[in-house]
Write a structure and sequence with these properties.
binds inosinic acid, two-stranded antiparallel sheet, 6-stranded mixed sheet, 22% helix, 181 residues, alpha/beta, binds magnesium ion
Length: 181
């Protein structure tokens, strides 16, 4: 059988580290949302794996919804530069929402998603990001919950892709340079 991990140059965060850290974050969420029923909002596609593991680790009653958000770099459309597509029947009004994201990079996506939710009447909005690349931030935004900080390198795995590939890896890693070309 072919080695599906062959494209990986190095593993930055192991499967064991991910599991342990999600348990810690889930405890923080349980403590902060005691007596509430937060709704997780998973930003597709990258956060699907994280959202699934996180949801199974929290103990407070939690629902989940999904939005697609696509960033258009510096061009200007709708909310600044991000297009948000919610599923039918998505109703953020009055809810305590935890946005679940794969990685915070420039911060544009999350800043637009958060503004959208508040405009729609969400009661509270917090951010839970799996990865944070603070060195790349162009928008002033911070996450209440974050699992790991990563250096300014393009990373894949645990839901994160390069060109729609490598999401299935259970760890976070950096690709060999020939795979980015
Ligand atoms: P931003 O914070 O609006 O710049 O965009 C963040 C989005 O860009 C994330 O949700 C990812 O989908 C994608 N992204 C940014 N950095 C990486 C990376 O290192 N690997 C994979 N996707 C990334
Ligand atoms: Mg994303």
């Amino acid at each position: 059988m072919a080695n599906i991990y062959e494209p990986i140059e190095k593993v930055l965060i192991s499967e064991e580290q991910i599991k342990a850290r999600i348990c810690e974050i889930a405890k923080e969420i349980d403590r902060d949302y005691e007596g509430k029923e937060p709704m997780m909002l998973s930003v597709l596609t990258g956060s699907f794996m994280f959202a699934s593991d996180l949801m199974r680790s929290v103990s407070v009653p939690t629902s989940i919804s999904f939005v697609f958000a696509s960033s258009y770099g510096n061009s200007t459309v709708s909310c600044g530069n991000v297009e948000i597509q919610a599923g039918k029947g998505f109703e953020p009004a009055g809810k305590d929402i935890i946005i679940v994201e794969d990685i915070m990079d420039s911060g544009r996506t999350l800043s637009c998603v958060r503004k959208y939710l508040l405009d729609q009447g969400a009661k509270s909005v917090e951010i839970c990001t799996f990865l944070d690349k603070p060195s790349r931030r162009v928008v002033d935004i911070d996450a209440k919950y974050k699992c790991f900080e990563v250096p300014d390198e393009f990373v894949v795995g645990y839901g994160l892709d390069f060109n729609y590939q490598y999401r299935q890896y259970p760890f976070v890693g950096v690709l060999k340079s020939e795979y980015y070309e």
